[in-house]
Specification:
It is a single chain. The protein is an all-beta fold and 101 residues long. It has a single domain, classed as Rieske [2Fe-2S] iron-sulphur domain (Rieske Iron-sulfur Protein, 3-layer Sandwich). The chain has no helices and 11 strands. Strand 10 and strand 11 form a beta hairpin. The protein is globular. The mean pLDDT is 95.
């Protein structure tokens, strides 16, 4: 079910904000290119809050152990481990961000 999260301009660029859901916190990211993505706010390594990580391009670096996660598919890249993070569909309408969680 689609639900309103915030206005696009309420997300730091680049950066993230969080939204609570039945699945846990969801991190909603905005890139330098103004793309918006949503991931479960939990690194697969040690559960670090991805919303606190540094966004570079279409990736986020976990603030705990520097694992790199692709924002578009949630896969771990350029790290000593592997895994993935759940992604959520995002829709932008009239400057507002909606996610399907």
């Amino acid at each position: 079910m689609w639900r309103l999260i915030c206005a696009v301009n309420e997300i730091p660029q680049p950066g993230a904000r969080t939204a609570a859901s039945a699945h846990g916190n969801i991190a909603v990211f905005r890139t330098e290119d103004n793309e918006v993505y949503a991931l479960l706010d939990r690194c697969p390594h040690k559960g670090g809050p991805l919303s606190k990580g540094q966004v570079t391009g279409c990736r986020v670096e976990c603030p705990l152990h520097e694992w790199i996660i692709c924002l578009d598919d949630g896969n771990v890249v350029e790290s000593d481990g592997d895994g993935s993070v759940r992604t959520f569909p995002v829709r932008i309408e009239n400057g507002s961000v909606f996610i399907d969680d």
